[in-house]
From TrEMBL, chain A:
CDD domains: ABC_PstB_phosphate_transporter. It comes from Parasphingorhabdus flavimaris. Gene3D superfamilies: P-loop containing nucleotide triphosphate hydrolases. Residues 1-32 are annotated as: Disordered. The keyword Lipid metabolism does not apply. This is Phosphate ABC transporter ATP-binding protein. InterPro entries: AAA+_ATPase, ABC_transporter-like_ATP-bd, ABC_transporter-like_CS, P-loop_NTPase, PstB-like. Residues 10-31 have a biased composition (Polar residues). It holds the Pfam family ABC_tran. Keywords: ATP-binding, Nucleotide-binding, Phosphate transport, Transport. It comes from the Bacteria. Residues 33-275 form the ABC transporter domain. The lineage of its organism: Bacteria, Pseudomonadati, Pseudomonadota, Alphaproteobacteria, Sphingomonadales. GO terms for molecular function: ATP binding. NCBIfam families: 3a0107s01c2.
UniProtKB/TrEMBL annotation, chain B:
This is Phosphate-specific transport system accessory protein PhoU. It comes from Parasphingorhabdus flavimaris. It comes from the Bacteria. The gene is phoU. Its main location: cytoplasm. Keywords: Cytoplasm, Phosphate transport, Transport. The lineage of its organism: Bacteria, Pseudomonadati, Pseudomonadota, Alphaproteobacteria, Sphingomonadales.
C-alpha cells in the first residue's frame, strides 16, 4: 500500500478521476469516506481501474453501470468484503474518517460494524427477529443489559420502519417475514451496531414495487444519519433515491456528479448512452 | 451535436421519437406555409386564399394535439433520460409555440378582407420583406430542431432583431400615415396588427430556437444582447410599442 500511496501523490495532478476535476468532493463538510486511485485485480484481470471518489454524509450516492462494470466490486472494497476472495488484490487508498481501512492495524470486524452492508438477496439469520437485531450489538458489546439491548432492538426496528409490523412477534423467525420485511430487517440489523456508512448492493432487485418503495422511503429517511452508498441496476431508482450518482464502465469511474445533472445533462457520451438506453 | 444518432436498445422508442420528429417537421412546415399564404392573400387581395389559411389552421391545431399526446405517452412509457428527455420536453413546448405561430398567420388572413381597398398606405410595401424574414426564422428554427443545431438556433435568435426593426419602422410609418390621413385610421390599424403579428411570429421562432438550444446542449441559451444602435433616433414609439419578449 505504501508504494501506491507515493505513486498516488505524484499522479494526482494528472489523474483523470481526480476529485477536483470530476466534482467528487462535496461543497458541504468533509467526506465520510475517500477513495484515491483504487485498483482491484482478480488474479490477472483488472476489475477496477484507478478510481477516486468521495462519499458524504449529506447525500445518498448511487453507483450505476452495466453488469461487470465494477460497481459492486468497488462497493465491496469499501468495507473490505473483497478480503474474502483469495485472488482479489487491491491497491490505492481508501479512508474512513481519515483512517486507512487497509492499514495493518485496522480491525476488519470493527470496520464492518462502522461500514455496514445490505445485500441483493435479504439474508436474515435463521434466528428470531429479536436475535437478528441483537446479534451485532451483543458481539460488539454495545449493550450492558437486557433492557439496553431491548432498546437497541426497538430503536433499530423503528428506524428501519419495521417496528409496527413486527413488535408483537419479535420471537418469530426472521426468515418468516416477507421479502421486503426481511430486507428492512437486514437494514435494521446493520443500523443496530450504529454504523457510519451503509453500503447497499442492489437492495431492491429481489423485491416487488411496493416493498421497493418502502426501502426507498427508508433510504430517504436514513440520509444524513449515515453515509449511504447504493449500487443499483435500476436507473429510475438511482434517480429517485440519490443526490450523487457515479457511473462506472469497464472498471473505470466515467462520471460522478449531482444526480440531477447526470440524468438531465450528462457530460460524458458513455454516460448518456447508458442512461438513455443506447448502451449495447 | 450531442445526439449521435445511436439507436436505442428498445427500437420502439426510436420509432416514437422519429414519429414525433416527423410531426414537428410537419407542423412547422404547415405554419410556415400559412404565413406565406396569408401574406400572398394580403398582397393580392385574394379572399379565397385567405379563407383557405383560416380553414387550414384546424390541421395545425389537430397536429399540436397529436404531438402532445404522443409526447406525453412517450414520456410516461419510456421514462426518457438526458438528451432524450430534453428533446421530448422541447417537442412538447415547440408544438404549442408553433401552433401559436399558425394562429398569428390565421389572424393575418382574417384581416385581408379589411385592408383591400387602400393601396396608398406606404407601410404595405415593407410587410412582404418583413414576413419573408419572419417565415425564414420559423423554418430555420425548425431545421435547427431537426438537426439538433445549437449554432443555427443562436443565429435565429440574433436575426429576430431584423424583424423587430421592421416592426419599429412600420409602426412609425403607420402612425405618421394615420396623422396625415385620419380617414385611413381603421385600415392602418389593421396593418399595424398584421405587422405586430409578424413581429410576434419572429419572437415565437426565437422561443423555438431557445428550446432547440436547450435540447441540444442541456444549457439555457445565453441571453440575447438587444442590438439597438445607440445612435438610432429614439422617439416616442419605443415607449409605445410593447417590448418584444
Amino acid at each position: 500500500m505504501n508504494d501506491d500511496k507515493k505513486m498516488q501523490e505524484s499522479s494526482e495532478s494528472i489523474n483523470m478521476t481526480d476529485p477536483a476535476t470530476t466534482g467528487a468532493t462535496s461543497e458541504s463538510g468533509t467526506p465520510k469516506m475517500t477513495a484515491r486511485n483504487v485498483n482491484v485485480f482478480y488474479g490477472d484481470k483488472q476489475a477496477i481501474n484507478d478510481v477516486s471518489i468521495d462519499v458524504n454524509m449529506d447525500s445518498v450516492t448511487a453507483f450505476i453501470g452495466p453488469s461487470g462494470c465494477g460497481k459492486s466490486t468497488f462497493l465491496r472494497c469499501m468495507n473490505r468484503m473483497n478480503d474474502t476472495i483469495p485472488i482479489a488484490r487491491i491497491t490505492g487508498d481508501i479512508r474512513l474518517e481519515g483512517d486507512d481501512i487497509y492499514a495493518p492495524q485496522m480491525d476488519v470486524v470493527q470496520l464492518r460494524a462502522r461500514v455496514g452492508m445490505v445485500f441483493q438477496k435479504p439474508n436474515p439469520f435463521p434466528k428470531s427477529i429479536y436475535d437478528n437485531i441483537a446479534y451485532g450489538p451483543r458481539i460488539h458489546g454495545l449493550a450492558t443489559g437486557k433492557e439496553e439491548l431491548d432498546h437497541i432492538v426497538e430503536s433499530s426496528l423503528q428506524r428501519a420502519g419495521l417496528w409496527s409490523e413486527v413488535k408483537d412477534r419479535l420471537q418469530d423467525s426472521g426468515t418468516a417475514l416477507s421479502g421486503g420485511q426481511q430486507q428492512r430487517l437486514c437494514i435494521a440489523r446493520a443500523i443496530a451496531v450504529d454504523p457510519e456508512v451503509i453500503l447497499m448492493d442492489e437492495p431492491c432487485s429481489a423485491l416487488d414495487p411496493i416493498a421497493t418503495a418502502k426501502i426507498e422511503e427508508l433510504i430517504h429517511e436514513l440520509r444524513g444519519q449515515y453515509a449511504i452508498v447504493i449500487v443499483t441496476h435500476n436507473m429510475q431508482q438511482a434517480a429517485r433515491v440519490s443526490q450523487k450518482t457515479a457511473f462506472f464502465h469497464l472498471g473505470t469511474l466515467v462520471e460522478y456528479g449531482e444526480t440531477t445533472d447526470i440524468f438531465t445533462n450528462p457530460r460524458e457520451e458513455k454516460t448518456r448512452d447508458y442512461i438513455t438506453g443506447r448502451y449495447g | 451535436m450531442v445526439n449521435s444518432g445511436t439507436e436505442h436498445t428498445v427500437k420502439a422508442f426510436d420509432s416514437d421519437i422519429n414519429q414525433l420528429r416527423g410531426m414537428v417537421a410537419e407542423i412547422g412546415g404547415r405554419s410556415e406555409q400559412a404565413i406565406d399564404k396569408a401574406m400572398r392573400a394580403l398582397e393580392n387581395s385574394d379572399l379565397e386564399l385567405a379563407a383557405e389559411v383560416v380553414r387550414e389552421d384546424k390541421l395545425i391545431d389537430d397536429l399540436e394535439k397529436r404531438i402532445d399526446e404522443l409526447t406525453f405517452q412517450t414520456i410516461a412509457l419510456r421514462a426518457p433520460m438526458a438528451d432524450d428527455l430534453r428533446e421530448l420536453i422541447a417537442t412538447f413546448k415547440i408544438s404549442g409555440v408553433v401552433e401559436r405561430i399558425g394562429d398569428y398567420a390565421k389572424n393575418i388572413a382574417k384581416r385581408v378582407p379589411l385592408v383591400t381597398r387602400n393601396r396608398r398606405l406606404t407601410p404595405v410595401s415593407l410587410l412582404p420583406s418583413m414576413s419573408k424574414i419572419a417565415s425564414e426564422l420559423v423554418r430555420d428554427s425548425l431545421d435547427a430542431f431537426a438537426r439538433r443545431d445549437a449554432e443555427l438556433a443562436m443565429e435565429v435568435n440574433r436575426r429576430d432583431q431584423i424583424v423587430d426593426d421592421f416592426y419599429n419602422s412600420i409602426f412609425r410609418a403607420v402612425i405618421t400615415h394615420m396623422i396625415e390621413n385620419p380617414k385611413d385610421i381603421g385600415e392602418a390599424a389593421h396593418l399595424l396588427f398584421i405587422a405586430k403579428n409578424l413581429e410576434r411570429i419572429g419572437d415565437h421562432a426565437t422561443n423555438v430556437a431557445e428550446m432547440v438550444y436547450f435540447a441540444a446542449t442541456g444549457e439555457p441559451m445565453p441571453e440575447r444582447t438587444r442590438g439597438e444602435d445607440p445612435t438610432d433616433p429614439v422617439d416616442v414609439d419605443d415607449t409605445l410599442s410593447d417590448d418584444a419578449d
